[in-house]
Automatic annotation (TrEMBL):
Family annotation (SUPFAM superfamilies): P-loop containing nucleoside triphosphate hydrolases, Thioesterase/thiol ester dehydrase-isomerase
Record's keyword terms, sorted: Membrane, Transferase, Transmembrane, Transmembrane helix
Domain APS kinase: 345-441
Lineage: Eukaryota, Fungi, Dikarya, Ascomycota, Pezizomycotina
Residues covered by the Thioesterase domain: 253-321
Protein name: Uncharacterized protein
Amino acid sequence: MYSTRAAARQMAQRTPTSCQLNAAARPARPAAWHHGGRASRAAALPPTTVPQSQPQSRRASSRADAAAAAAAAARGSGPSGQTAASGGAATPPPGHPAGVPGEGRPRRRAGRALGRGLLVVLFGLASCGAGAYASWRALSSRGMGFYSDAESLERFAPGEGEGEGDAQARQVEQAINAHPLVAELRRRGERGEVVESRPHMKMPRAYRARSLTGGALAGPGRVPVPAYAWVEPGGRSLVSVVFVGDDLCGHPGLVHGGFLATMLDEGLARCCFGALPHGVGVTANLTVDYRAPVPAGSYLVLRAETTRAEGRKAWVKGRIESLPAGGEAPVLYAEATALFVSPKFAAVAKLFADSATIAITSFISPYRADRDLARRLHAASQDPQDEALPFVEVFVDVPLEVAEQRDPKGLYKKARAGEIKDFTGISAPYEEPTNPEITIKTHESSVEECVAHIVDWLVEQGHLQLP
């Protein structure tokens, strides 16, 4: 919804694109609660195309000109934020089937039309890829973007200095990479059975600096090199290898039990993320049984397995054991079981907004009580001295019959036939918003006009600044 003129135009053409806010734009961290209207409406802007001859409002045009200038400035100075807008394939207005020639027209005209259509689609795909790559590069270069599993393996190298910390890091890194267990896990990775990463190195610099395990507990004497992890696709299992130094003790010479609990909490959670619907979860409960003291200065192996996953919940068991020398049996230090729950959309949006990241959500939210709860959640700041997080409710007001016409999967038809129960707008209610910040009627306005309307509102409210 935070878009420049080019992004709005490409959205109108229904070609996916990524765009960057200009360097002067400094949004005040709004979370946009974007939901459908009267029935199970498409929460995102609809896949409709407007003829180029259709006039646009002067206001939308002038705002788009300003946005275009902002985009040009961004290319010179780098972005201060990022968003992505995407859409599907172009859908012609009703009564105008694409690629079908009119009566009496030569077949070659149909061929030319089809060729142009394919060209547009290919251009859209190229624009999507180029935009996404540019956005990723911009964020990564500024230390703001998360890194892939493969990239995380390249983002750490022990220091070359003669200091004690660098020497320890080199020694630990060499020992881990030379161990037979690591070699076996990497062979499994080559077969596609597990995915290797260094989870803490996937974090952007600013994020990692505020992380307990990736920041405060990392470094000489604590965790001198980032842990390695091998995760089975789908969140089924995890194996992690790490070295724990001498400065994480409870009793002298023994690793603090609280650190081991933190390792289990994070490791078991990371194991099941792939089994949760949004790829993230919070700890509902964690039970730890300590079996033996852990000597400081030890190489440890954490093993975890997701035993059950249902909806937003996942149950995991795991253990911490020693990294044994060849032919030796590992020593069991601690065992744990845990339950993780994937937060609801509103809670996830607030987490992002509270960390100065714009959160845009798009889904069906049929009940006012749920939307009011999300609004109150953002209004309740964690720090009494902080202002409430801005919350923007966008009502996509579309008649039921229009929503049914736009249904490519035939869900409405199935709901009317009784094949789908409790379907919003058919067999379940939809409660319209009583006081949304923004209302857009996509059956009356083009996609570009709707985008301009949203941008206008954000500028007027001070959430977005355009030159």
